[in-house]
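Quick start: what a row looks like.
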Amino acid sequence: MARRSSPPKRATLEDVARTAGVGPMTVSRTINGHPYVAQETAKRVRAAIAQLNYRPNHAARMLTGQLSRSIGLIVPDLADPFFSVISHAAQETARESGYLVWLAASNYDPSIEAAQVEQMTHHPVDGILLVPVDSRHSYLKSAVLGRTPIVAIDRPIEVVSTDSVETENRSGARLAVEHLIGHGYKRIVCVATNSHLRTLKNRIAGYEESLRHARLPRTKALQLLSLADAKTKLSELFKSRNRPDALFTANNSSTIWVIEALREMNIQINKHVALVGFDDVDFYTLITPPVTAVRQPAAELGRVSVRLLMQRIKGDSSPPGVRTVLPVSLVIRESCGCKRRE
């Protein structure tokens, strides 16, 4: 039986030095564009690099104060359409600047997220984009105060000042609820998951403000933990004397669970109850009836956050805490009671 050949050994800086007939320091200076390397010497070094297919060690370059030309991006869930769009846009924007993005998912677990931030910091990236699971978690303070710049996406870090990019959550919720009020609905219930998040708190606050201004009764937001929980709580709600005539679902996971639960209960959206969601996703146009929803500029969130992080990487020394808020819009379809637009 033929022996399997081992992969070729990766060339080192010392290998390049021996091939070129120079010292390792001269190789390092040539790679880094040092002005005090003779033209003929630099030519020999570059020829040796090409011959050996040498690739500089980025970790070693960071120790000399150089950039790795890579950034980290940590999101809670890559399967969520909102975060996948952000991730794609961030990668494209970073690539245009010659940067690689190391992508990770925290699975909504602060301990996993903390470990990912630590790994990215010590296997160095030049900066980190972070959608924090818990904006008040204690580990974030030491992470943000470290040497690696961090930009928060979607939800600002609350325990320490850092740059952030988010959307108009409160006014977006008002857009949604005021549209329902405009249809004449009187009993509008807010439904949400992950209501501890600052983004969700702002959306619930916007819902409450709209009903208060319209002098309509407000109920405590219905908190959903799972699809099974949604089915149980919505069944109880629609059997009660305060059966709603409209629902405002404050994020896309609650929208999806509500749609599935109502279908199982034979409650038809638009006919028996109106629905407006927060977070517009492509497949809402495929549902019957198509879902009216607040659209966040997810791609722009990714692009703007990368640009802000690049400014910090390049040495922007202005005080941290730059807060960028992007506008949202209401995409009107039929779930709210509107008729199809031809």
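That is the whole record. The two ends are 71 Å apart (CA to CA). The longest helix spans residues 81-96.
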